[in-house]
Amino acid sequence: MTGAQPPSAWAAGLKLRCPQCGQGALFSGYLKFRDTCAACGADFKAADAGDGPAVFVILIVGAIVAPLLIILQFGLELPGWMALTITMVAAIALCLALLPPFKAVLFAFQWKHKAREATHADIE
Prior knowledge:
By secondary structure, the protein is mainly α. The protein has one domain (9-113). It has 4 helices and no strands. Helix 2 (52-75) packs antiparallel against helix 3. The longest helix is centred in the last third of the chain and has 33 residues, at 80-112.
């Protein structure tokens, strides 16, 4: 995709695709980045989204499951063990579903803005 406009970081991230060309798969496993893009050859060896995706996912999932637990236990008057079980299953499912797209989107924004770890050469 030489000379073409790069895809939106949002679009590439949510589709789990290469942030440079928007075509190749970004992950080789559940959360493991590929070494290179199969479509354009972009090098992902230095890819690192850090802890950002996990933090965002925890905050979002917590904001969803905390009210869910209260509704299940007090609104629907389910037994405590049942409300907790449903809430825990929902929390695990949401975390597993949201982690890859959040990691991909944050990496796509890092790629777009050429963000990288600072080195000694950057200081001087």
